[in-house]
Design brief:
alpha/beta, eleven-stranded mixed sheet, two-stranded antiparallel sheet, 13 strands, about 25% helix, globular
Length: about 300
């Protein structure tokens, strides 16, 4: 029985922002599945099963939407924190991350939180991230950082992510410099435009099996399992938790085992999604280096460059 190390629970597929490159809510979105919030009848048995696994699990409670839109998110986090083998965090657009939320995630010792912020200028940020407000997002972020410092808290680790759209590539260095000394990690993600492209730059010539098939479990808001985080439309689901089977039964079932076998045999073109996807390269192409002049460590991956303080 294979047990993943990372589980993604899509607590919400709804969103209050429409970002330029978003497959679900962007101006050229192509995902057509229904959107909603994950209900307790899904998340409670899922987390309980994850908490029973004899393995440390990184639980990510975001997916294709904004997790803070789920009114049960605090209950989800509190329940997950009762299991010693679960580390938990989520990505947010920051618009709803008010002082009350900042207090909560610090006091509950959320392991990490990441905010999506595209650049340093409101005039471009607020166009790329339609219905977002850079001034408000930065205010919320600074409130979180000040509260964390005032409370002497170690957690949550705070991460930021900027998507390197052509329109804001000239803001990349300014974005890193603005935040690198204030947060634990700054990421600059390369831009692509699925479904027309699932390709990343800097991919090795030799194709290898995708480690996500053995390491990452994805559970959509309605309880259906997805093949991986690239299965935006949940086109390749083996079933729904609770109806057909438990999480591990579905994840180790016939359909996903068949895809793993294809990868093990190098038959990547035999799967319609895998043959056009470069995410497999994340586990094979990372390069780290230290910029002594600027004082931070960099890891370059096909999908993004990660900056961390030395």
């Amino acid at each position: 029985m294979i047990i993943p190390v990372n589980v993604i629970l899509e607590t919400s597929a709804l969103c209050n922002v429409s970002c330029l490159g978003c497959a679900l809510h962007g101006p050229e979105s192509f995902v057509k599945r229904p959107f909603g919030n994950m209900k307790k009848k899904i998340w409670e048995p899922a987390i309980r099963e994850i908490g029973s696994w004899d393995k440390k699990i990184a639980l990510t409670v975001h997916g294709g939407g904004e997790p803070l839109l789920n009114p049960e998110l605090k209950d989800i986090i509190l329940f997950a924190k009762t299991f010693s083998n679960i580390d938990i965090g989520f990505l947010t657009n920051g618009m709803l991350l008010d002082e009350a939320w900042a207090d909560f995630i610090i006091d509950v010792e959320l392991d990490w939180i990441a905010l999506s912020i595209d650049g340093v200028l409101p005039e471009t940020h607020d166009i790329i991230r339609n219905h977002s407000d850079l001034v408000r997002v930065e205010k919320n972020l600074n409130t979180l950082l000040k509260l964390k410092k005032r409370k002497g808290a170690v957690f949550p680790n705070v991460k930021l992510n900027m998507v390197a759209y052509d329109q804001i590539m000239d803001q990349r260095d300014a974005f890193v410099e603005k935040w690198i000394d204030k947060v634990e990690c700054v990421m600059v993600s390369n831009y692509r435009n699925p479904p027309s492209s699932k390709r990343w730059p800097g991919v090795p010539d030799k194709r290898e099996p995708c480690s996500l098939l053995w390491s990452q479990m994805v559970v959509a808001w309605d309880g259906r399992l997805g093949l991986c985080c690239e299965d935006f439309n949940i086109d390749f689901s083996p079933g729904r938790i609770g109806e057909e089977a438990g999480l591990l039964e579905l994840w180790n079932g016939r359909e996903f085992s068949r895809v793993r076998e294809l990868h093990s045999k190098g038959l990547y073109d035999k799967h319609p999604m895998c043959k056009i996807c470069d995410t497999w390269a994340e586990g094979y192409a990372g390069k780290g280096r230290v910029d002594a002049k600027k004082g931070y460590h960099m890891i370059e991956l096909p999908s993004q460059t990660v900056f961390m303080r030395n």
